[in-house]
Amino acid sequence: MKKILVFLMVVFAVALFAADPNVLVDATIGEPDTLDPHLAYDTASGEVIYQVYENLVQYDGSSLNKFLPRLAAEVPSVENGLIRDGGKTYVFPIRKGVKFHNGNDLTPEDVEYSFERGLLYNPAGGPVWMLWYSIFGVWSVEEFVEEVSGKSYDELFDENGNPLPGAEEVFQKVYEEVDKAIEVDGDNVVFHLRRPYGPFLNVIAQGGHWGAILDKEWCIEQGLWDGQPTTWWKWHNQRKEDSPLYQNAMGTGPYKFVEWDRAQQKVILEANENYWKEPAKIKKVVIWGIDEYSTRKAMLEKGDADIAYIPTQYLDQVRGNPDIEIIEGLPTLSITVLAFNWSIREDSKYIGSGKLDGNGIPVDFFNDVHARKAIAHVIYYDALINDVLKGFGKRIPTALPEGLLGFDPSLPLYDFNLIKARQELMQAWNGEAWKKGFKFSVAYNLGNEARQRTAEMVKMYLEMLNPKIKVDVVGLQWPTFLDATKRGELPIFILGWLADYPDPDNFIFTYYDSKGDYSSRQGKNFQVFVSTPRPELGGKSLDDLIEEAAAETDAAKRAELYAKVQKFVVENAISVPLYQPIGVRVHRKWLKGWYPNAMRPGDDYYAYWFEGKE
Description:
D-Maltodextrin-Binding Protein, domain 2; Dipeptide-binding Protein, domain 1; five-stranded mixed sheet; 33% helix; Extracellular solute-binding protein, family 5
């Protein structure tokens, strides 16, 4: 009955849009996590931001290494003299005649403010580490504070969070260094990198919303950083919901933000008729998070949705429909991994009693390599790929997708093997895990059947091995799921990673470095493990090897370093790679203009038009 009511509510609501050929309805799953470009780090958020904001440069169609100018009037290159000093200086002439949605003119000062605000805001778990690493060679503003002052960031504040004497001078110094790295020079914005960094244009290209350009004046009016040298700390690491951009967006892009209806998981955009290029052909876009697959399917078949997320296991249900186009075999730079939290929050509701007493697990349960390996052996990988994904995925040995430097198909793959799983469990926690049993929860984001089935496999096969083992499977809304991972509450989390930029460091660093984006979700014990020097790594830590590989300019040497990293990762079951997706796209045939780009977080609605939709 509940599913029927949800279906009727959605069908009634979508009827308001479906009859209008100027409206595009995209029936997807979930909803954005935030609309703040410097905090958003998921594709649902990125897809909205992509339409509303613009970056300095964009990818040229489907290419991942050719660029076109966007808000910059030219793409910097050595040939045109806009890349200088051996690759350490990038000059961006800012396009004239561009207006924000509120009518304000785009200026070089807006570009400077956008990057400086991002660097100083630098929210934990967000994407701004890429800007810090690209420009300064460090990973965060906290690390930069310590470099500048010799003190940790926390040492600048008293127990109530108020700055101590001398802190203001540090804030000023940090700002000055950031300001010198990004400066306005007439109609240009000039970036001064500490060292050459080849992927810099990839990092800030359209699709990487951390490079989106904000209106300085409007942002300050909304309550963002006021632009003053010694006040930025007040906004640093601000809570997601406290950001004025959490549910608000205003840029220069082809679409204006109208509404984010949290109750219906629905975002509405309308065409920017004053766009500096031609206005969008489709005048309104509705991005609708509809977790129930049958509802999305019905909307697509009736023409009430122009685009729909159809899980690969259900493709045959829409195949053969003369009004629906299915595009298969698309390359992706994405992977899905089951990762472990080695130091779960003590107040987590997903670990039962919090003890190894048969009714829970201790917070460091997955600090034991045998516990991790047991999970690796209870996943029926072939069934996941063949039955759930319908073949639209392939096995990978680590969290590095095929197609990038360092991918090594000769590395061993974890196998589905209940005998091995039982042997590992009997060794975990000196045999106590097997003897006493344990209980914990595996969560997944609602609407993602592949992740749901993976969680159910963990439950089914662990419980089959030992009746003293109990696993609960919990479905969560996307923002709730993300927040739970960021807070370190989930013992196991299943997350994908779409490349921020097409380089192996973006995957290897993210999953395996103690400073990577997923590091905090994997806990302190993980961070200690990968940052500790080890004899098998020649006296270096895994962090050392990862960072050495990122800085290496010789491709062959880089590949050798990544081979060492991945061998260590596999041997220690640091995480469990599930699959690399093979892309598929489903939409109504009347939708024209779609093109693939592995770096785009969703659709490019500006490129679309309808042909024959009435």
